[in-house]
Amino acid sequence: GVSVMQEKIDNSVGIYFEEDDKNMVENFEEIQNFLQNIIYSFKEESEYFFNKWEFFPFTDKEKQILSVLLPAIHQNTKNVWVEQRFKNNKGKNRFFDVSTIDKNNNVYFAEIKHCYKSYRSPKHSITKKIYKEWNNAITQINDLIRDNLKEEFYMDKIGNFRWYRVALMVMPTYIASPNIKKYKEPKNKTEEELVEYSKNVFRYFSEDPRINLEKKPSIVMTYATNDYKNKENKFKNIQIYPFVSFIAKIELVEEI
Description:
Elements: E1 13-16, H1 19-24, H2 28-53, H3 62-77, E2 81-87, E3 93-101, E4 106-114, E5 117-118, H4 128-141, H5 146-149, H6 155-158, E6 162-176, H7 191-207, E7 219-224, E8 239-252
Parallel strand pairs: 4-6, 5-6
Antiparallel strand pairs: 1-7, 2-3, 3-4, 6-8, 7-8
């Protein structure tokens, strides 16, 4: 196999959002750049991981994604805080997944979710389970308010920073055996095609009656796995993963 060190990693990412959503999030472009850098690093870390294990951690479950997501965040911020306990809106203890502070002193508190999408049946492959996971993520980030978090962090340090809460769903698209041989797509997608793919995913999540408008994503980003036809996941089922999408809802955490 080709070493990832020698294999040029294509950084094409298709990004889609709507102008109305952009205007609803303070410093949207800054946050978009931050997420874009994370997905670049996520792709890079995933390729390194596959080179060692012949397995992509995003093909398993939510916790396994952290194997590449945490290093990807750390590449960009040099700090990652995970599984911090706090009291939710009902006064009960719970944990949020990940927090980090970027170079512009934006603090991100994130809940991470995971799902799969089949390539063969575009809209219908966004299943009830996926919508349920997404709705759960939005419910969870609603607990991430300053009143609930202020006891857990050194507020003299971060109290004046901008805080954002993020629901992030990592969604690989798969093609299962025996359909792999029928798949005639080129090795890599152009950026324009990836934008179109992200746009379709965005619409699945924003136009479905199971998701109300308050819960629709702020942005969707998609990349194509390098040389994905030669990277079959043989661990449980034989599958390839041509695309990986980040679906994110971002909200400013208001000051007290």
